[in-house]
Amino acid sequence: xLHFLTDWIMTHRLFAALIGITFAMLVSGQASAQATxxxxxxxxxxxxxxxxxxxxxxxxxxxxxxxxGNVTDVQIVEARPPRIFDRAVRTSLAKWxxxxxxxxxxxxxxxxxxx
Length: 115
Prior knowledge:
Order of helices and strands: HEHEEHEE
Radius of gyration: 23 Å
Helix content: 25-40%
CATH class of the largest domain: Alpha Beta
CATH topology of the largest domain: TolA/TonB C-terminal domain
Number of strands: 5
Oligomer: single chain
CATH superfamily of the largest domain: TonB
Largest sheet: 3 strands, antiparallel
C-alpha cells in the first residue's frame, strides 16, 4: 500500500510540474504560435499569363516561416493552370512577414488570379 501511495504522489507531482511549465511557457510567449501574416506583398498578374492568353488561375501554396517571422521556403502544392503563376507567387510570398514564434512553422493558403 505504501508503494502505491508513493507512486501516486510522484505521478501527481510530475503532472503538476508539467502543467506549471506549460502555463509558464504560455504566459512568457514561448509556446508555439500559429503563423499569421503581418504584412503581405501585393501579387501582380504575370505577363507570361497574359502572353499565354490565361485570364485566371489559382495556386495552393505552403510557406515555411522561421522564428523571426521570415519566409524560408515557398512550396507550390497545386497550380491551375500549372507553372503559369508559380514565379509570381514565390516572389511575392517570399517577401511576406509573419508573427514571431517557433521556427519551421507552416502557413497554407490559396492565391487566386483574375485579369
